[in-house]
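Q: My labmate handed me this sequence with no annotations at all. I'd like to see what the chain might look like in three dimensions before we decide whether it's worth expressing. Could you predict it?
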Amino acid sequence: MAHKKVCLKCRISFSISTNSEIENIKVVNCSNCNEKMAIVHHKFKPPKRNDLKKWKLVELLVKNGFLFQSVYEQISVGVFLKVDYPKNLIEAKEFVEKHKILF
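A: Here is what I predict for the chain of 103 residues:
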């Protein structure tokens, strides 16, 4: 399953084609700015490069461990409901507080 490399500073993303490529990655630096890139789930759809509000949203989520993988909320014993990712920063702050798992 493919994933993506994302540079939050340059606001760019690149696909990673194979799981073996992902397993071999320790740290990926951006070829433009040399900053560390995040590895996110293949479901991530990058905003347009000039959409700063959306990129701030992406940055908040990624820095809090949400890499665009599926998130589920338990609604009753043994029953889980998939949660949609937030659409703006206000929703994102609530989302992070509610769904962040302490490691």
